[in-house]
Amino acid sequence: MKLNAPRLTLIKTRKSLGMTQEDLASKVKISRAYLANIEGGKYTPSLEVAKKISHILNRSIDELFL
In what residue span(s) does the HTH cro/C1-type domain sit (predicted)? Predict the structure, then answer.
């Protein structure tokens, strides 16, 4: 599956902060598998989860998910 630009921004931002999927998932209180599916474009996060991810990564929801 080809990743769109926002999903790549999510992955690149997470990695630039030195965070693994496990690290971010733990902070958001979701499973690593669920985060992997979000990053892979298989799942769209709820607004609550999207807000938590964007807050932790210091990016807007638009940058990461739209």
Answer: 10-64
